[in-house]
């Protein structure tokens, strides 16, 4: 007699809070691996989102997916960067308070791509006005220029940011975007690349 495997056996658990062996690193990694094998790159730890770089295009960033996550309770749908972006936006509006998303990870982990997905989500989901369109276009379209000057190919990432970016989007009380900033910071020496200077006699 073989019991029919539960879907969880195949796709893992979508929130680490629900993992039985919650203090086992092996169980943690095993769960991530199971999900990654099924192209499920996002997993929650409560309200924290873990993302594993798929290094391939996944069909999860479509307009249809964005519509699906708009205004939906955080835990109602499978983990997604859109759920996080949406939740932060609505928390900001309901609490009338500043909110932030901190993206952290090693080089090549997918931080820059994640920040772009968030901006794209806001560009589609936030109320639209001419001003909003201008803010959205400037935030999104300045990226290639910043990357042209500020990114370089490294051993770990073909398009590695050589500086950190602090982005803020300002919303009015209706939730319309009215402005934004992109500031560079964390220009650490370890992030600067230069050609090796070879001494010749
Ligand atoms: N969600 C994703 N879907 C598909 N490919 C991705 C995704 N995230 C990252 N990648 C791929 O991985 C590459 C590296 O990602 P990214 O530049 O975002 O890393 P990073 O964490 O910002 O690295 P660094 O700290 O070196 O700047 C991208 O150029 C892209 O090819």
TrEMBL record:
<dbReference type="GO" id="GO:0005902">
    <property type="term" value="C:microvillus"/>
</dbReference>
<comment type="similarity">
    <text>Belongs to the TRAFAC class myosin-kinesin ATPase superfamily. Myosin family.</text>
</comment>
<keyword id="KW-0067">ATP-binding</keyword>
<dbReference type="GO" id="GO:0005524">
    <property type="term" value="F:ATP binding"/>
</dbReference>
<dbReference type="InterPro" id="IPR001609">
    <property type="entry name" value="Myosin_head_motor_dom-like"/>
</dbReference>
<dbReference type="GO" id="GO:0048731">
    <property type="term" value="P:system development"/>
</dbReference>
<keyword id="KW-0547">Nucleotide-binding</keyword>
<dbReference type="GO" id="GO:0006897">
    <property type="term" value="P:endocytosis"/>
</dbReference>
<dbReference type="Pfam" id="PF00063">
    <property type="entry name" value="Myosin_head"/>
</dbReference>
<feature type="domain" description="Myosin motor">
    <location>
        <begin position="12"/>
        <end position="201"/>
    </location>
</feature>
<feature type="binding site">
    <location>
        <begin position="105"/>
        <end position="112"/>
    </location>
    <ligand>
        <name>ATP</name>
    </ligand>
</feature>
<dbReference type="GO" id="GO:0000146">
    <property type="term" value="F:microfilament motor activity"/>
</dbReference>
<dbReference type="GO" id="GO:0016459">
    <property type="term" value="C:myosin complex"/>
</dbReference>
<dbReference type="GO" id="GO:0005737">
    <property type="term" value="C:cytoplasm"/>
</dbReference>
<dbReference type="InterPro" id="IPR027417">
    <property type="entry name" value="P-loop_NTPase"/>
</dbReference>
<dbReference type="InterPro" id="IPR036961">
    <property type="entry name" value="Kinesin_motor_dom_sf"/>
</dbReference>
<keyword id="KW-0518">Myosin</keyword>
<dbReference type="GO" id="GO:0030048">
    <property type="term" value="P:actin filament-based movement"/>
</dbReference>
<dbReference type="GO" id="GO:0005886">
    <property type="term" value="C:plasma membrane"/>
</dbReference>
<keyword id="KW-0505">Motor protein</keyword>
<protein>
    <submittedName>
        <fullName>Myosin IHa</fullName>
    </submittedName>
</protein>
<dbReference type="GO" id="GO:0051015">
    <property type="term" value="F:actin filament binding"/>
</dbReference>
<dbReference type="GO" id="GO:0007015">
    <property type="term" value="P:actin filament organization"/>
</dbReference>
<keyword id="KW-0009">Actin-binding</keyword>
């Amino acid at each position: 007699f073989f019991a029919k495997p539960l879907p969880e056996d195949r796709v893992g658990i979508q929130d680490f809070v629900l993992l039985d062996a919650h203090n086992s690193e092996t169980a943690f990694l095993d769960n991530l691996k199971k999900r990654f094998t099924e192209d499920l790159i996002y997993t929650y730890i409560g309200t924290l989102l873990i993302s594993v770089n798929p290094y391939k295009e996944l069909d999860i960033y479509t307009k249809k997916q964005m519509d699906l996550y708009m205004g939906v309770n955080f835990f109602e749908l499978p983990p997604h960067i859109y759920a996080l972006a949406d939740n932060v936006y609505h928390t900001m509006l309901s609490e009338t308070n500043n909110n932030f998303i901190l993206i952290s990870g090693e080089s090549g982990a997918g931080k820059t791509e994640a920040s772009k997905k968030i901006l794209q989500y806001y560009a589609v989901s936030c109320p639209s006005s001419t001003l909003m369109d201008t803010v959205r276009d400037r935030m999104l379209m300045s990226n290639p220029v910043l990357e042209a000057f500020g990114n370089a190919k490294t051993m770990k990432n073909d398009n590695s940011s050589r500086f950190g970016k602090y982005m803020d989007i300002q919303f009015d009380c209706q939730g319309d975007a009215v402005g934004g900033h992109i500031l560079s910071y964390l220009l650490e020496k370890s992030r600067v690349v230069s050609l090796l200077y070879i001494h010749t006699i």
